[in-house]
Amino acid sequence: MKTGKTSGEQSVRQNSPKAWLLASRPKTLSGAMVPVMLGSAYAWRTFFDNGREIGFDSPSFVTPLIANILCFLFAMVMQIDANFVNDYFDCVRGNDNETRLGPERACAMGWVTLPAMRWAMTITTTLACLIGLPLVLVGGWNMIFIGISCVVFCFLYTTCLAGLGLGDILVLLFFGIVPVCCTSYLICGEIPWLIGISCGMVVDTLLIINNYRDIDNDRASGKRTLVVFIGKKYAEWLYITLPTLALIIILIMYGWSEKNMLLCFGVYFLFVQTWNQMRAIGAGRALNKTLGKTARNILVYGILISLLIIFA
Question: Can you spell out the DSSP letters for 237-257?
């Protein structure tokens, strides 16, 4: 069994379970979980508020709970699929070279071979489609269009759109509006647009800090992210502005009670701490610590705001 390049002092066997775990980037999965979490919180709260019977016109095996679970599984598998696509194409293009500042990538490090990654992309894409197929029985044929869009833009993000400054728009759509609204619609038939927008804004902070760290490499390679367009100083302010607006949206929707404000302040305090650390570090691999804390902040946002929605 071949061994890939070392990560610190520890080597990773090529195409081993550990290699695939690293390739799936488990720390990024909070970005997939949180939108479905918020959509679920809104949907179940709506059921109980309206005194509606849990059940709808669909085959008996696709209950609201099953639909909810399928939404979670679809989001998680699509996130892993997107990570595999990003890993593969960045390696093929030579983006993951010795100048890379971000976490090490499986293909570039030799942990996963390119042919194996091509098979993995095929498997995860197919699996996501199979998971999402029963949801067509609940939400109708428009779910097929949404599912196809998720798959298409999963590939387009890495191959072209991220380098045109459109990555943040895709995050707002596919890590905010689409998963939040589709999850809620499939469970209770309602579409909470504002919660989807709030979620997309918060999740986008992960992309902002990622592109903030890589701004010099992206400029050198001709990759035109939003951070490259606006510069580091404006990117710093955008990073803290997004959760500010997101939490204001939630408070406008659910009221400025002490309990609601306390929950939102808990989220905001974490983002302010991370923002200050981001500005203090400024550049280099040390920003990976800020990236990890941003993923934590997003997960805390998902948990606390879901509680706010349920108990408001």
Answer: HHHHHHHHHHHHHHHHHH---
Report which residue type is found at 88: Y
User: Measured between alpha carbons, how far is residue 288 from residues 46, 152, 190, 210, 258 in Å?
Assistant: 39, 29, 38, 8, 34
Q: Are 274 and 290 in contact (CB under 8 A)?
A: yes
Q: Please list the pLDDT of the chain residue by residue as tens digits (312 residues).
A: 455 555 443 578 998 999 999 999 888 888 899 999 999 999 989 877 775 544 455 555 678 889 999 999 999 999 999 999 999 998 888 766 666 677 888 998 899 999 999 999 999 999 999 999 999 988 888 899 999 999 999 999 988 888 888 999 999 999 999 999 999 999 888 999 999 999 999 999 999 999 999 999 888 878 889 999 999 999 999 999 999 999 999 999 999 999 999 999 999 999 999 999 999 999 999 999 999 999 999 999 999 999 999 998
Give the predicted TM-score (pTM) of the model: 0.91
Residue 248 CA to residue 269 CA, distance in Å, equals 14
Q: Are 218 and 228 in contact (CB under 8 A)?
A: yes
Mapped onto helix, strand or coil, the DSSP state of residue 7 is: strand
| DSSP codes joined into one string, 53-97 | -S--SS-TTS-HHHHHHHHHHHHHHHHHHHHHHHHHHHHHHT-SS
Q: How many C-beta atoms surround the C-beta of residue 78 within 10 A?
A: 24
**Look-up: residue for tokens 């971000």?**
102
Looking at the chain, the number of H-run helices and the number of E-run strands are 15, 0
